[in-house]
Design a protein that fits this description.
Belongs to the DNA polymerase type-Y family. The chain has helices spanning about 20-30, 50-55, 65-70, 80-95, 125-140, 150-160, 175-180, 190-200, 205-210, 215-220, 225-230, 260-280, 315-330; strands at about 10-15, 35-40, 50, 75-80, 105, 110-115, 145-150, 165-170, 245-260, 285-295, 300-305, 335-345. By secondary structure, it is an alpha+beta fold. The protein has 4 domains: about 5-20 and about 85-175, Reverse transcriptase/Diguanylate cyclase domain (Alpha-Beta Plaits); about 20-80, 3-Layer(aba) Sandwich (MutS, DNA mismatch repair protein, domain I), CATH 3.40.1170; about 180-230, 5' to 3' exonuclease, C-terminal subdomain (DNA polymerase, domain 1, Orthogonal Bundle); about 245-345, Dna Ligase, domain 1 (2-Layer Sandwich), CATH 3.30.1490.100. A 5-stranded mixed beta sheet has the order 5-6-1-7-8. A 4-stranded antiparallel beta sheet has the order 9-12-10-11.
């Protein structure tokens, strides 16, 4: 569990486009520049992306559009144009390929690059600067980048000087940088896990560093090893250019077991938000919604429903999940965990392929 020696320090760059969808819309429509813009959520649903002008009012992606409108009455809603976002993303990907074949896309607007064996006499920082300049020249939108010796820190670094910024975390600074951050800023630690950690007195990276591996694995299972490592600035994950997303999922473990069906359906809302946010960021949709239920006695079941036409909205994901939950909810032990997964993925807006419904497909 120690970081590789200095003779093999990796050079990882995380590139993250700045308010990508909204920035593309502002690029293409001069009347939108300098104004608060939200992509998506025109009639109902959630915000897929928000411009920095909108973010100043507290508008964020995955926020219900009605709440976004209340926060920013002058908010301008724009219909998503996924074909345009995909085209711009492809331009960016071609720029990356000029520097390394080791590219791991996370979505249309962000990716990891491993430059370790592809520096050609330059520093990773210099290459990151070149990439950002070329993206702006080619696409008219800006990107932020983080440079470090592993994926975890590179992603943290890309958030430090947004928008249109560059931040470097060298090996000697990595552990100290992690210790100074609040837990909520850690990639891989969502709001529910952060709340559980805070309940144990873990509020910062320094607090996490003080916990033993045994303590973390006992309370967080297999993820405990990951948390133990990142508290020390350690992340051995490789950049995977062949990474293919097969499903998009989210789940939450509750402090108190759920025993009321209507309350449980409310708890499914944030999970549907998260799944749909990731789907829209990747310009994806899917045909199968799977519900995961873990009861208070740790028994676990899943129920799935496939639809003939790809899912069109966050509300549809939530409606299917709630319908699946009803018949399996009643249990004397209560419900400890709920999860939603969207699978059978395909590009949003793509021409639907002819498909014969299977025996177990349900409308």
């Amino acid at each position: 569990m120690t970081e590789p020696g200095p003779e093999r320090v990796r050079r990882i760059v995380h590139v993250d486009m700045d308010a990508f969808y909204a920035s593309v819309e502002q690029r293409d429509d001069p009347d939108l520049r300098g104004k608060p813009v939200a992509v998506g959520g025109i009639q109902r649903g959630v915000v897929a992306a928000a411009s920095y002008e909108a973010r100043r009012f507290g508008v964020r992606s995955a926020m219900p559009s009605m709440r976004a409108r209340r926060l920013c009455p002058d908010l301008i809603f724009v219909k998503p144009r996924f074909e345009v976002y995909r085209a711009v993303s492809q331009q960016i990907r071609e720029i990356f390929a000029d520097y390394t074949p080791l590219i791991e896309p996370l979505s249309l607007d962000e990716a990891y690059l491993d430059l370790t064996d592809h520096l050609q006499g330059r520093t990773a920082t210099r290459i990151a600067q070149e990439i950002r300049a070329r993206i702006r020249a080619a696409t008219g939108v800006t990107a932020s980048a983080g440079v470090s010796y592993n994926k975890f820190l590179a992603k943290l670094a890309s958030d430090q000087r947004k928008p249109d910024g560059l931040f470097v975390i060298p090996p000697e600074a990595g552990p100290g940088f992690v210790q100074s951050l609040p837990i909520g800023r850690f990639h891989g630690i969502g709001p529910a896990t952060a709340a559980r950690m805070e309940a144990h007195g873990i509020q910062t990276g320094a607090d996490l560093l003080r916990q033993s591996l045994e303590f973390l694995t006992a309370r967080f299972g297999k993820s405990g090893t990951y948390y133990w490592n990142i508290a020390r600035g350690i992340d051995h994950r490789e950049v995977r250019p062949d990474r293919i997303r097969k499903s998009i999922g989210a789940e939450n473990t509750f402090f108190d077991d759920l025993r009321d069906l209507s309350a449980a359906c409310v708890e499914l809302g944030p999970l549907a938000d998260k799944v749909w946010r990731h789907a829209t960021r990747n310009s994806l949709t899917g045909r199968t919604v799977t519900l995961k239920v873990k009861y208070g006695d740790f028994r676990q079941i899943t129920r799935a429903r496939s639809v003939a036409v790809p899912v069109e909205s966050r509300d549809q994901v939530l409606a299917i999940a709630c319908e699946l939950l009803g018949p399996v909810f009643a249990d004397p032990h209560g419900v400890r965990l709920l999860g939603i997964t969207l699978s059978a993925l395909e590009e949003a807006g793509a021409e639907p392929a002819p498909r014969q419904l299977g025996l177990f497909d349900q409308a």
